[in-house]
Design a protein that fits this description.
heterodimer; A: about 120 residues; mainly beta; four-stranded antiparallel beta sheet; about 55% strand; B: mainly beta; about 50% strand
């Protein structure tokens, strides 16, 4: 069965600083990987996804993520954080099993931004 | 235009009651899902529903039952509510391809007193 680990429960960065959120996955085949963001009281919004091809994926709001098969990682990065980026970030792996396609989420990383 | 909508946004009820949460998607998707997000923000799949085929997560109690009147709707019925059912419930939808993104609704915060 697939699994996702987000090692950092809470990260605090200063506005304008760079950001990297870590994600490690476990899956036997080629993974489909996603990063979602959840603002307080809101639903989940897709930031970016990786299926194949270029291992560096660009997303919305200036985010990017790099797939590293050798490290089973899919870390999310942003060069300069804005106060509005404060939210909960979820990494997920998609897989087909038991006749359906499902997302397995990590436990999330809460990002706080200091003005 | 809201892609995936849920009603109500908040639901407060007593233990033992039966309640429903409605979900509608206007994206023309084939598959719909229900997720539960617990107090620690952990998201877990409860059901997926495609072409009248229901896939149930084995850990979901049979008090929970999804009902789909048509392809655009997947409602969640919960019988005999328990304190542990308090959570945020998210509906999502996607196409059938493994490359299709899942789009999430805004969530329904259920509080059982």
């Amino acid at each position: 069965a697939q699994s996702v680990t987000q090692p950092d429960i809470h990260i605090t960065v200063s506005e304008g600083a760079s950001l990297e959120l870590r994600c490690n996955y476990s899956y036997g085949a080629t993974p489909y990987l996603f990063w979602y963001v959840q603002s307080p009281g809101q639903g989940l919004q897709l930031l970016l996804k990786y299926f194949s091809g270029d291992t560096l994926v660009q997303g919305i709001k200036g985010f990017e993520a790099e797939f590293k098969r050798s490290q089973s990682s899919f870390n999310l990065r942003k060069p300069s954080v804005h106060w509005s980026d404060a939210a909960e970030y979820f990494c997920a792996v998609g897989a087909r099993g038991a006749g359906s396609y499902q997302l397995t989420f990590g436990k999330g990383t809460k990002l706080s931004v200091i003005p | 235009d809201t892609a995936v909508s849920q009603t109500p946004k908040y639901l407060v009820t007593q233990m033992g009651n039966d309640k429903s949460i409605k979900c509608e998607q206007n994206l023309g998707h084939d598959t719909m899902y229900w997720y539960k997000q617990d107090s620690k923000k952990f998201l877990k799949i409860m059901f997926s529903y495609n072409n009248k085929e229901l896939i149930i997560n084995e850990t979901v109690p049979n008090r929970f039952s999804p009902k789909s009147p048509d392809k655009a709707h997947l409602n969640l019925h919960i019988n005999s509510l328990e304190l542990g059912d308090s959570a945020v419930y998210f509906c999502a939808s996607s196409g059938w391809s493994t490359q299709d993104t899942q789009y999430f609704g805004p969530g329904t915060r259920l509080t059982v007193l």
